[in-house]
Amino acid sequence: MNRSEFIAVTALILFGAFVLGWIASWLVHRVARPARADMSELDRMAQQLHEVEEERDEAVAALAEREAALTTRLAGTQAELRDAMDGLRDSRNEVEDLRDYIEQALARR
Considering all CA atoms of the chain, what is the largest pairwise distance in Å, rounded to the nearest integer? Predict the structure, then answer.
């Protein structure tokens, strides 16, 4: 077998392998093609997925709204707490000043 015959035989073998692969691929796609019932099932599942995604988006929006409301409420509560603490501090200072005044007044007598 010379070089030309070897090349021709190799080319025929490779071409035959290609044709067999193509036929096998065609058969697999032909057998594995989804039936119409399967397609309707896939359509139904896609619709359900779409509905669930919409519900999830609504839940996320409601959660964001609730979080914003709670953040606002927390900020208001913290402001009230600061005001109350400032008032308490002022009251303590005033009480301390009054005690000092009373002690000084009693010490003069």
Answer: 138
